[in-house]
Specification:
- The structure is a single chain.
- By secondary structure, this protein is an alpha/beta fold.
- Helices cover 47% and strands 22% of the residues.
- The chain folds into two domains: 72 residues, Histidine-containing Protein, Chain: A; 70 residues, Fe-S cluster assembly (FSCA) (GMP Synthetase, Chain A, domain 3), CATH 3.30.300.130.
- The strands form two sheets. It has a three-stranded mixed sheet.
- A hairpin with a 2-residue loop joins strand 1 and strand 2.
- It is globular and about 45 Å long.
- The N and C termini lie far apart (41 Å).
């Protein structure tokens, strides 16, 4: 049994248990079991669960596709908006990656940011983690942007910003990310507050 399948199975079991039982304590326990940070997240618990379900299903589809499974492709979902990123050798594989996940239940929109290039190495991945942490620290220190409203993902020096923020916060978050050493590009995939 693959790791991704095991993880998917655990989340499905947790979700079934969450909805089968009643009470606040069960809700809090179930939310913690699926890794939800509802206290600081502007999304509802239901939306957070939907996003995690979308991520798991879409990432499983990519990992199980015989033509895509050897490429480093990932999906991150925020407010049912999906960021698809990674590297593939040609346009056909880039398009295939989007097509493979397109019918995943709950996806509102796909931001296909898959790059046509060789796969990034471990040193680049390490640098990307450093960039992400620096952007998050600078967002946390800013008075205009609420850091918990912005999800930061970095891939090969490109910073992707997702979240539910107003235009002033979005512009400030982009400005902050652009000024972090090592950032080559900032792509925003924000939703406006409802």
């Amino acid at each position: 049994m693959t790791y991704l399948w095991q993880k998917t199975r655990i989340v499905v079991i947790s979700l079934v248990a969450l909805f089968a039982l009643n009470g606040c304590a069960v809700l809090a326990t179930g939310a913690a079991a699926v890794g939800i940070s509802s206290v600081t997240d502007p999304r509802t618990i239901g939306s957070q669960i939907d996003d995690q379900t979308i991520e798991m299903k879409a990432n499983a589809k990519l990992g199980n596709d015989d033509k895509l499974q050897d490429y480093r492709l990932r999906v991150v979902s925020y407010d049912q908006k999906v960021l698809l990123f990674g590297q593939v050798p040609d346009k056909a594989m880039r398009q295939r990656a989007e097509e493979v996940i397109a019918d995943t239940n709950g996806i509102d929109r796909i931001f296909n940011q898959v790059r046509i290039s060789s796969q990034v190495g471990l040193s680049t991945q390490t640098n990307d983690s450093w960039i992400t942490s620096q952007v998050k620290l600078k967002l946390a220190a800013d008075k205009l942007v609420k850091a918990t409203d912005v999800k930061v993902v970095t891939e090969n020096g490109e910073v992707f910003l997702l979240g539910i923020v107003g235009s002033d916060q979005a512009n400030k978050a982009v400005e902050i990310a652009r000024n972090v050493k090592g950032v080559t590009r900032v792509i925003k995939a924000f939703s406006a507050p409802r």
